[in-house]
Specification:
The structure holds 2 protein chains of 2 kinds. Chain A contains 10 helices and 18 strands. Chain A is an alpha+beta fold. Chain A folds into 2 domains: 224 residues, Rossmann fold, CATH 3.40.50.300; 122 residues, Beta Barrel (OB fold (Dihydrolipoamide Acetyltransferase, E2P)), CATH 2.40.50. In chain A, the strands form 4 sheets. Chain A has a 6-stranded mixed sheet with strand order 6-7-8-3-9-10, with helices on both faces. A 5-stranded antiparallel sheet of chain A has the order 13-17-14-15-16. In chain A, strands 2-1-4-5 form a 4-stranded antiparallel sheet, with helices on one face. The longest helix of chain A is centred in the middle third of the chain and has 18 residues. Chain A is elongated and about 80 Å long. By secondary structure, chain B is an all-alpha fold. Chain B has a single domain, classed as MetI-like fold. Chain B is built from 12 helices and 2 strands, in the order αββααααααααααα. Chain B is globular and about 75 Å long. The chains are: A alpha+beta, B mainly alpha. Chains A and B meet through strand 6 and helix 2 of A and helix 8 and helix 9 of B.
Chain lengths: 358, 263
């Protein structure tokens, strides 16, 4: 596998702000690569540096092992799907899609054929003569995708392309994008602040925080083995134990994370759910129960101090029982091998993805 | 609103009615008998036809010159300049509008005079000032109405999202391709909107031509002379309907481009 994109020590400063801070990154040919992070974490700036809309303050950008750091956007073999789609409003769908080919002086017949193919790829056959204002948000998004794909770029850059769509459409497009990517075999670099979106589609994910990559891993690794409290908090919900609490509950110093679905909740009964070599247990009081359809989430105040979020699938008919648990005493238990150690470093304040906006 | 309509349309109606009356050659009083004589004179007497065509030609040329000058200025203001510089440039463009029209016209009379600054600059190149005449009128009117073109084009370009320019570059379009295929088509309705000002203001002008136009006449002069010196109000009214009709045709054409939403 060869590398499609390499960033070598890339920094981008806007006045005093370090949007991107000494970044090294390799993106492999043909992969679906996501850059995930809260707004202002530098992920969009990295995308713009690859596209050529920004020049790095220092460092080098390589496309297919070729240094393109000083090359303008129009001379780079990458195409972008913009957050606001940037469809040319004075052109028809067909003219929009053909734009890149027209600029490169591709002959008319070939242009038409390739535009037709690209529109078929994004399932917009028969829309060629429409004007952009006649299209829905989802259709515009597809036009933007077709307009980029028609050029057969080496890399396709997507800047939060699904952000403006409603949830249902967004879910459909996530799956469709992944299918299209497999079909065309082009490297996709996808920017998003939505952790679920990143987990759904990506081969690998880079989690950004303050201009640096906090962790670069596959979705499974990222979720199961976060390396920092920031990643643990940003990707999914996490329960964090640290300091004295960790010592008391787990018998170990350090910072530990456990996912809500890995915690079992049982009614307090003598002899049940004791701490052992393989299992930890802690008593507490249920403060809140939230029913979410497929899952139920409970918030439990442990006697030892911390508050834990516990979730379980609503697979049986014990839902009523779960909902009645508010203010009751329970015992939480989890397997020690499900705990993820973040080392002894004090945890940074954890950002929750729900609070982030585009 | 209603009164505004009555006052405005009433004046236009009175104008049209007056143009259908005639004037007693001896006494100079207006005779209220219906006749199309004024319009017949307007279309059959050569000098009036020449003046009409000259007026429309000058107005068109002024509009084209202003569009060509205004576009790069407006593009720079809207998309290149920093927000601070942007504000300064808007003020700079508006500034000439605060000065009296007459002062500016006389300033150009000075500029264009045989020993004026323009002649002085042109002399080393073996050129001389265009002197007073149609070229001087075009230069002066272009100068006078330029802000009316810059401002709508600037406003129009400012509304175009930057991502469209980036998208064009991203798809392989260089600066010129982007300007030709994206920026100008996007700015076109705003240019047409600006042209309504430059064209109509040029069409009705009669002062600049008096000051820098030498002996050439425009429709405005004919109107002015007929109701002033000749006291032939009906004929003046008939002449005045020409620019109105031309403007109505122009506005109808402009409407088709969607320019009126840009005003």
């Amino acid at each position: 596998m060869s590398t499609a994109i390499s960033l070598r020590g890339v920094s981008k400063h806007f006045d005093q702000v370090r949007a991107v801070d000494d970044l090294d990154l390799d993106i492999v040919d043909g992969e679906f690569f996501s850059m995930l992070g809260p707004s202002g974490s530098g992920k969009t700036t990295v995308l713009r540096l690859i596209a050529g809309f920004e020049e790095p303050t220092s460092g080098r950008v390589l496309l297919a092992d070729e240094d393109v750091t000083r090359r303008p956007a129009f001379a780079r073999d990458v195409n972008t799907v913009f957050q606001d789609y940037a469809i040319f409003p004075h052109m028809s769908v067909q003219q929009n899609v053909e734009y890149g080919l027209r600029v490169k002086k591709v002959p008319g017949a070939e242009r038409r054929q390739r535009a037709e193919e690209a529109l078929a790829t994004v399932r917009l056959e028969g829309y060629a003569d429409r004007r952009p204002h006649q299209l829905s948000g989802g259709q515009r998004q597809r036009v933007a995708l077709a307009r980029a794909l028609v050029n057969r770029p080496r890399v396709l850059l997507l800047d939060e392309p699904l952000g403006a769509l409603d949830l249902k459409l967004r879910r459909e497009m996530q799956i469709e994008l992944k299918e299209i990517q497999r079909e065309v075999g082009i490297t996709f670099v996808f920017v998003t602040h939505d952790q679920e979106e990143a987990l759904t589609m990506s081969d690998r994910i880079a989690v950004f925080n303050e201009g640096r990559i906090e962790q670069l891993a596959t979705p499974v690794e990222l979720y199961e083995r976060p390396v920092s409290a920031f990643v643990a908090g940003f990707v999914g919900t996490s329960n964090v134990f640290q300091g004295e609490v960790a010592q008391q509950l787990l018998g170990e110093e350090g910072t530990f994370v456990i996912r809500p679905e890995k915690v079992r909740m049982s009614s307090e009964a003598p002899g049940e759910a004791r701490s052992g070599p393989a299992v930890c247990a802690a008593p507490g009081v249920v403060r809140e129960v939230v029913y979410l359809g497929s899952t139920t989430v409970s918030v439990v105040d442990l006697d030892a101090g911390p508050t834990l979020t516990v979730s379980h699938q609503n697979t049986d008919s014990s839902i009523d029982a779960a909902l009645e648990r508010r203010d009751q005493r329970v015992v939480l238990s989890w397997r020690r091998d499900h705990l993820v150690s973040l080392g002894a470093a004090p945890a940074a304040p954890v950002a929750s993805p729900e609070e982030e906006t585009a | 609103m209603l009164w505004l309509g009555v006052a405005y349309l009433g004046a236009l109606a009175a104008l049209l009615i007056t143009s259908l009356w005639t004037q007693d050659d001896f006494t100079g009083t207006i005779q209220r008998t219906w006749t199309l004589d004024n319009f017949r004179d307007l279309f059959t007497i050569d000098v009036y036809r020449t003046i009409t065509l000259r007026t429309i030609g000058i107005a068109a040329l002024v509009t084209v010159i202003d569009a060509v000058l205004a576009f790069p200025i407006a593009l720079y203001m809207a998309k290149v300049a920093s927000p601070r510089l942007q504000r300064l440039l808007v003020i700079a463009v508006l500034m000439p509008l605060w000065a009296s029209y007459l002062v500016k016209a006389y300033a150009w009379r000075g500029m264009l005079s045989a020993d004026g600054p323009l002649a002085w600059v042109a002399a080393p190149f073996g050129l001389h000032s265009p002197g007073y005449g149609v070229p001087a009128v075009i230069i002066t009117l272009s100068y006078l109405w330029l802000p009316y073109m810059i401002l709508p084009v600037y406003a129009g370009l400012e509304r175009v999202p930057n991502s469209l320019f980036e998208a064009s570059a991203d798809l392989g379009g260089g600066a010129w391709t982007t300007i030709r295929r994206v920026v100008i088509p996007m700015a076109f309705p705003a240019i047409v909107a600006g042209s309504i000002f430059t064209f109509s203001l040029s069409l009705g002008d009669y002062i600049a031509v008096k000051i820098v136009g030498g002996t050439s006449q425009l429709l405005g002069n004919v109107v002015f002379d007929n109701q002033g010196a000749a006291n032939n109000l009906p004929f003046a009214a008939a002449v005045a309907t020409v620019p109105i009709v031309v403007m109505l045709v122009y506005l109808a054409a402009a409407r088709r481009t969607g320019a009126l939403e840009n005003l």
